[in-house]
Write a structure and sequence with these properties.
alpha/beta, 315 residues, five-stranded parallel β-sheet, seven-stranded parallel β-sheet
């Protein structure tokens, strides 16, 4: 039986749909898979496909009789697990492809804060030539990083931080050893893990247990010269508490790729803080993104042809 695979135009937020179709074309041909482009709101095109590669989620997906949905992101908190399971729709994600890009981004955040690169960039726009205050610049070597979440993303962060000579600790549900992490804490020891860290990087999925994980109590626990780095999901952090902590100098600042509301509203005070770096949910951006997603989807196509399960199945 021929499988018809659609790519939803919402992936254009990350890469052109045509780039994905080109990347998977040979594997589709080899597995007898037909390819389609599905426009947003195009119910007729949606009804013609058995499986869908998408960035967005739409309730129409449940009514379309799909057998399989693949998210081009690692996080799948926008998808209704119970409803998909009840409808017999398999859900897969793109975990495993972002470790290097996320790791590089977080390393860049830390280097920017330590070496004041973000400040110099702002000064460049103002054509201002000024040395930093003597107590501002520092080296990352010997500084402590706490990585909260030690999956693919967290391990990518830890590897780069270790290479920069940092003292790396981590937090995970099960505190078993992880490469490049000197000490691993259980989630019940979060406060202890973050207390001595110059940087706290969030790299864990959004779940009912992790929503609001970092709030007023955690900011009170962190060092006053510490920076929060969030490349996970905005709702993991109490954003109002973060703003209060920054404005009260309870923490030094933050680098944020994700927010409670995206895009970040123009009215948000986060835009105006020198010690806040805002990036547009682009920490995982990579020129090979479409190819990497295509590799995962192609593996699922091969498994389906062989009568096996899906790669990266979530539901």
């Amino acid at each position: 039986m021929t499988l018809t695979l659609g790519v939803h135009e919402s992936v254009d937020v990350v890469f052109p749909p045509r780039a994905f179709l080109d990347a998977i074309d040979d594997d589709a041909t080899a597995t007898g898979t037909e390819l389609r482009l599905v426009g947003d709101g195009d119910s007729e095109a949606l009804a013609d496909v058995d499986a869908l590669v998408t960035f967005a989620y739409d309730e129409a997906f449940l009514d379309a009789g799909l057998d399989w949905i693949h998210s081009i992101q690692t996080g799948v908190d926008k998808f209704p697990f119970d409803e998909l399971k009840a409808a017999g729709v398999a859900l897969t994600n793109s975990t495993g492809i972002h470790g290097d890009a996320i790791g590089d981004t977080v390393a860049g955040y830390m280097l920017s804060f330590a070496r004041r690169l973000h400040v110099y960039r702002d000064q460049q726009g103002a054509r201002e030539w000024r040395w930093p205050d003597p107590d501002e610049p520092f080296s990352l070597a010997g500084e402590r990083l706490c990585v909260v979440g030690l999956g693919v993303l967290g391990r990518g962060i830890a590897m780069r931080a270790s290479g920069l000579g940092m003292d790396v600790v981590g937090v995970r549900r099960t505190p078993t050893p992880v490469a490049n992490v000197d000490e691993v804490y259980g989630r019940d020891a979060l406060g202890e893990a973050i207390a001595d860290a110059r940087f706290v990087a969030l790299a864990l999925p959004l779940t009912p247990e992790t929503e609001g994980l970092i709030g007023e109590a955690e900011f009170e626990t962190m060092r006053s010269d510490a920076y929060l780095l969030n490349v996970a999901r905005g709702a993991i952090v109490d954003q109002a508490a973060l703003i209060d902590a920054i404005e009260a100098d309870a923490v030094a600042g933050a680098a944020l790729d994700v927010f409670e509301t995206e895009p970040l509203p123009e009215s948000s005070p986060l835009w105006g803080h020198e010690e806040v770096i805002v990036t547009p949910h682009a920490a995982a951006a990579h020129h090979e993104y479409a190819d990497r997603v295509a590799d995962i989807v192609a593996e699922s196509l091969r498994r389906q042809e062989a009568g096996d399960g899906f790669a990266n199945r979530v539901v």
